[in-house]
Write the structure tokens for this entry.
Amino acid sequence: MYDKLLQFLCSCHNFSQKELELVQKYFEPVVFSKNNIIEEEGKVPQYLYYIISGYLRLFYTDQNGNEITTHINCPPGFFTSYSEFINETISENNVECITNCELLRISKQNLDYLISESQTMKDFSISVFQQSIMYNENRSKELSVLNAEQRYLKLMRDYPEVIQNVPIQHIASFLGMKPESLSRIRKKIIN
């Protein structure tokens, strides 16, 4: 289970054997079933997750009781409610397993320890959080600039595995539309 994480880490930074051993010591393997909420709104996120397999979503419930999906992730990669995890503040978001998931998780305390013990891990962590910021900025721009069909086509092109593994209601919410609208777009594309 650790092989994928270690390969991911080493693909962009030069970790020493000692640093990799620390990573294995502090990342805990966990398995969750489909539809399991692993971080709840109203609480401080406890873990940063590395996705070995499966699909996760970040969502909140609006004032009308609708679930609004703000992020969908697939392997490989890290996932949590980032700003609340980093700042140890209460989150308005839930992290849910869309499918069965194999994950490695680390607490904020253990991540801080790894960062204090390893300059490479510190550099890597900074790059992960920078990528998260860039992703959110690009997503905001796409939601305001692209129309619904363009957003769906971009998702199809960039992340076809999401289309194949994530229920339509979550994809529609993520793309800022109703499931009926997404169904019409999909039908139009097929024809």
About this structure: The chain has two domains: 2-145, 146-191.
